[in-house]
Write a structure and sequence with these properties.
Elements (H helix, E strand, L loop, with lengths): L5 H22 L14 E3 H8 L3 H10 L5 E3 L2 E5 H17 L5 H11 L4
Helix pairs in contact: 2-3
């Protein structure tokens, strides 16, 4: 009676899955954020976080503390794309007119300061 090692079977299946994933990732186009055709389109919190390159919790904090315009619908926030862009430009301009660094550079400094090594 011949017994097969079950771990060999599992490893073979994992190799098949890995090659399939590699083939799919090579053939799929790069993921880019869609360019908005409608400036009044409504985006959700995760999409706004991708646009700002920030975590969802940080964007939620911007809504509460920095008056990012958003509407609470149920348990999630919805934001107009154009209002998000306008808010960011105004936020950045406020720092530049005060003679401080731009908002983008402040965000990057905070990211470096609180980065986990």
């Amino acid at each position: 009676m011949q017994t097969n090692n079950p771990f060999e079977l599992i490893l073979n299946k994992l190799e098949q899955i890995q090659t399939t994933v590699d083939i799919i990732s090579v053939n799929s186009p790069a993921q880019n954020l869609p360019t908005p055709t409608d400036p009044d389109r409504i985006i959700d919190l995760p999409e706004a976080a991708k646009i700002l390159c920030k975590p969802v919790g940080t964007v939620r904090g911007y809504i509460h503390s920095r008056k990012l315009p958003a509407r609470l619908v149920g348990k999630s926030y919805l934001i107009k794309y154009q209002e998000l862009i306008t808010w960011f430009e105004n936020y950045q301009a406020a720092y530049e007119t005060e003679g401080k660094k731009s908002a983008t550079s402040l965000m990057m400094e905070n990211r470096k300061r609180y980065r986990k090594d």
